[in-house]
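Annotated sample (chain length 928).
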Amino acid sequence: MISLVTSQLRHGLGRATATVLAIAVAVASFALLASTAEVSRLEASGTVEANARPLYDILVRPADTPDATTDGVRADDVASAPDGITTAQWDEVRALPGVDVAAPLATVGYVMQHVAVPVDLSPYLDPTAERQVLRVRPTVVSDRGTTTVPDGDTYLYATTHSFELVPGQPWEAGVVYDQGEVPEAPKIVEHDADGTHEDCVWGDRTGHDVDRFAPRDRESFACWSSAAPIGGVIEGMPDGATAWVGVTVPLLVAAVDPDQEAALGGLDAAVVSGQYLAAGDGSTPGELPVLAATRGELDQQVELAVQRLPADAARTVLSSRTVSGALDTFDGITPVRGTDLDRLEIDADDVHARLLATLAAPPGPGGPPWLDVPSTVAGPDPSTVVDAVRTVGSATPGPVEVSGDEWGTATRDDAGRDPVPVTAADVLTRPVARHAPEDPGASVTLRAVGTFDPALVDAGPELATLPFEPSAPAGASGADDASTAALGDRPLLPGSAIGGWVAQRPTLVTSLDAVGSLAGYTRSGEPLPVGTAAPIATLRVRVEGDVGLDARSQERVRAVADRIQETTGLHVDLLVGSSTAQLPAQVPAGSFGRPPLVVGDAWLRSGVATAIVTAVDSKSLVLAVLVLVACALAVGNATSSAVRVRSTELAVLACVGWPRGRLFGLVLLESLVVSAVAGLCGALVALLGAPLLGVTLVPSFVVLAVPAAIALGAVSALAPAWRASRADPGSATRAPVSHVGRAWSPRRVATLAVLNVARAPGRSLVGALALALGVGSVGVLAAVSVAFRGAVTGTVLGDAVTLQVRAADYVAAGLVALLGAVTVADVLYVAVRERASELALLGAVGWRSRTVGRMVLVEAGVVGVLGALVGAGAALGVAAVLADDVPRAVWTAASAAAAGGVVLALAAAWWPVRSLRRLPVARLLAAE
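Output written by the structure step:
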């Protein structure tokens, strides 16, 4: 029997080669795909496990906090939480067994700080002019350039004559002066060429009945002399022709426990200058020690337009005796137009660096140069005095109504400062309340004890950074094409409008012990939360020991959370295995150009890591089953075809007396030999193809290739061998085609091709099903990639894992599609061999070989269209499960996959069509 098998394989070398090729491709595909799926599963599981535990395991919030929704916990709800946890409850949590760290966080609020940025105007002065006026027009730009707000102009009066300071008369405390007895204020006098004296004005508009947001009421005026610079007559003033542009910066202050914060995120290790906060620090009355971030995150630039006013503008200044009078000269009913000289920009990083220098400087005399008359009384720098502002609640989808008294009505406070940024007049999406000390004469001065680099603070694993953590970057990216384009494909960052959609992260950090100095700040009798009995907004709890995704770790965390809730009654959220998801949110249009936006709102979803691991394991199992089915179809069809082609030989053997058992063994043995050779070839193909495809082979799958091929060949040969041994010799010599009840003569090649496909429905369906598996796989993956952007899970961790396993998915889909094409080619080849006599007869009666080849191509197209429709329908069905409304992109992807399946089927017909040229027409006709 072995010699007969050898002889049969040698004489049917073409058929054996085709069978070996089909099985080798199936075996190589199995080895490559199984290895790819396993490696990607291990990589994905490793990524998930490395990012499963965030910086802390349990988030503790006030008792009245709403429960998490199906979308999770909104990050802004946590970041904007004002208060609600007492220090006694914090102590109880720290004392519980299993608690390693319990770090409190109290959101103190915003403090408004001024930065005076010098603008050198000396290059723009006309050296031939005796007197001249330059104007600097600032425009605050934020929200990625979509918001532009004009601010108050700054004027510089330059003269070639000298200045003199006339001190004026001091005020006596407690004395009420009559109108004619008011002491004369200090003034600056200009000496011109003939010795006369005229007043020069200096400072800002004053008054308590002006609009603090109107650019006209935020203007300032300064003088400079080339003969005797102002610095020569007033101590501390600049000598150069400098305009000082004031930029208001809101800084968010948070209070922490220094020891717990150092243990949680290593804030102490992030200090780059000065020293770290100390427990009990802040005992000095009137001071608030802070640790300042080395960089800000505000999206705020100030664009400056430098202009020269007409010559007569300088002469009119001489007739003015007040700042308001001089400014009214330029922006009255008929504003004075200037000539543009240059455009400059004040960078946010430069502003923050100057702010840090101001906070770190010791208290001393004087103040910013834009004050009415610089004070010579020693005291704290007014630019560091706290003006506390609170934001209440999280951002809402629409604008928030804010009553007029929340910002106050005066342009300045008693210190001569204007603490409100001009952008605060924009549409607010969260309520804002301004707090002032109960004692009007009281003040708290910021004192920077050191600076810290936010990048050096431990925020946890990269893919598990909590979106509401103070060290997490702030920002909201566009969630639709219009918003992305409006923002320049950049995230929407916090601006100086503290009531804006994106909340600022803390820039100043102080201690809970020191923040008591703000306890006297109230609004309508309502104290700041830091002055209440429950100042803490959240507690961040880390459990002792290692915590993973295993059931034992999860139970330990859950037990600690249950004890916290039972002991304190506070709300707890489990964070292990959570990840950030971006949900679309509507941001209303602004008052200064920003269009309505749809941005990604950060939410925290729990249990994501476990869900991803389960999904990856399920996907690997599905891919393994898919490739096994495709391999079984390819091998089964190849083996069945090999037996079917030899049906005449087997019938002859049955006629000469071969028993059924021997016929069965002959077919089975031949299949085993071919399968073993194919298995070795498939293993070799896998070894050679893995580097080209970038696949890391798993040795066990390569070793398994040969026995897997033999097993598949044996199983696939059972049915054909059984049919060969059981069928009578007469039936074995007939082609396995369907019986046609009524004779019909087709008139077209396409019609004949369709009839040929229908003659062997089982074989045709096998080819179509194999191709449908490949088309469906490619269609589903393309739909996910195009329509859902690969973010099947919609979370940061899920997106990262999806990117890792996507390559493996496409390798799998490509191999399955290749197996489908091989199966279609084998189906067509067997059909050509079975109908060889018919095709020879067609050639004998005048059919051209090109026409016969076109008929075979049409048969391939029919099988391809059938498989493509089934596969594309399956892809659309999966897409419908993933999304309620299947997007147009999914239809496009499924259609492209279907078209590709048809092209593959037509390409698979190349070898069967080529074999038509080698048909022995004369011998076949003689046999008939």
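Annotation: DSSP finds 24 helices and 27 strands in the chain.
Annotation: The chain has a mean pLDDT of 75.
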